[in-house]
Structures are given as structure tokens and as C-alpha cells.
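Quick illustration, no need to memorize.
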Amino acid sequence: MISKKELPLCPVATTVGLIGNKWKLFVMRDLLKGTKRFGELRKSIPDISQKVLTENLRAMEDDGIIVRTVFAEVPPRVEYSLSDLGNTLRPIIEVMETWGIEYKKHNDNVGS
């Protein structure tokens, strides 16, 4: 977790630092729909490597955005879900989705 001393003074910079790369946004997009296993996340996020997905999941867990649940089974089962804190980002992601849809519509109409 980022210490208070390491957080930027600007709140927008703090948010961008925590969720501002495309991989974290894709993970959040998928977890907004419910709990997912590692393999499900990997399949749903185009072009992400196992290493990059693992690094981003660990960072998001350390920052308190997601929860990693390990089940004592053979083979072990691991599931990821948004934490209560992560769920507070839902409106941000939903607005980004709406904006992206509108942008695409606008661009489809440009030059027609």
C-alpha cells in the first residue's frame, strides 16, 4: 500500500497513480461484473502477459483495490474481487465506459 507520505498532493494524481494504467482498468472492468479467477482475467484482457497481470493484481491488492482469496484445495484455487474500496471506483469506470461509447458514436458520424 502506498504510504501517506508517498501520495501526490493532487487527488487526481493519486487516483491516476492507483488505477491509471490500462491493465488495471481492464482488471477493474472485469471485476465490476463479479469475482474472477486468474485464467478468466487473462483470457478477457487482450495482449496481457501472465507476468504483467500478476504484477498488476499484486499492486492492486497491496493498494486495497482488490481482494485475493485462496482456497485450500488441490490444485489451489485463487479468486479476485473488488474490495469495498475498489467498489467505490465503480462510478468512475462506468462514466469512462459511457464516455467511450459516446466518443465512438461521434467518430462514426464524423466524415459520414
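The mean pLDDT is 91.
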